[in-house]
């Protein structure tokens, strides 16, 4: 049996789609952390069968838009004195900037290097975004 202690003060990122925990772990740079971090992969879940969990014994500034874009089903628990102080449920953000790069070679972002890559959510059910400048489509599943 695997035992991971509870977090006294910090963050638990829960309900991550199985196999995607490493993406969030790497995005947050947790491999270089000076504090305790646990990445639990393929844990059993009553809701979704299998899930990943990240436990962080520290309080970090998290970009909820990016995390919601990576996996809109995750929940973030803020822990104080081993109790959940706040639970945050994420969703796909309506607009993302500089998270996705437009792949259309004729898009203005290919020429203007300092121009932000801006995408708007057009289909929440399928996780589809469109480039503000050229309407190139991007699906979250392509990530």
From TrEMBL:
The keyword Amino-acid biosynthesis belongs to this UniProt entry's keyword annotation: no
SUPFAM superfamilies according to UniProt: Aspartate carbamoyltransferase, Regulatory-chain, C-terminal domain, Aspartate carbamoyltransferase, Regulatory-chain, N-terminal domain
Keywords: Metal-binding, Pyrimidine biosynthesis, Zinc
Domain named Aspartate carbamoyltransferase regulatory subunit C-terminal: residues: 95-139
Coiled coil segments of this chain: none
Annotated GO MF terms: metal ion binding
An annotated GO BP: 'de novo' pyrimidine nucleobase biosynthetic process
Residue ranges constituting the Aspartate carbamoyltransferase regulatory subunit N-terminal domain according to the UniProt record: 2-91
One of the record's GO cellular component terms: aspartate carbamoyltransferase complex
Alphabetized PANTHER family for the sequence: ASPARTATE CARBAMOYLTRANSFERASE REGULATORY CHAIN
Xref: NCBIfam families: PRK00893.1-3
Protein name from the UniProt record: Aspartate transcarbamylase regulatory subunit
Organism annotation: Clostridium carboxidivorans P7
């Amino acid at each position: 049996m695997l035992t991971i202690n509870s977090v006294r003060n910090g963050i638990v990122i829960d309900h991550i789609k199985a196999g995607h925990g490493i993406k969030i772990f790497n995005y947050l740079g947790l491999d270089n952390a000076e504090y305790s971090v646990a990445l639990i992969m393929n844990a059993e879940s009553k809701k979704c069968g299998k899930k990943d969990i990240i436990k962080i014994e520290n309080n970090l500034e998290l970009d909820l838009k990016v995390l919601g874009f990576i996996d809109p089903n995750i929940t973030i628990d803020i822990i104080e004195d081993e109790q959940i102080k706040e639970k945050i449920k994420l969703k796909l953000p309506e607009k993302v900037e500089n998270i996705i790069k437009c792949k259309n070679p004729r898009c203005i972002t290919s020429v203007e290097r300092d121009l932000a890559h801006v995408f708007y959510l057009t289909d929440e059910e399928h996780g589809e975004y469109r480039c503000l400048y050229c309407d190139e489509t991007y699906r979250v599943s392509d990530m």
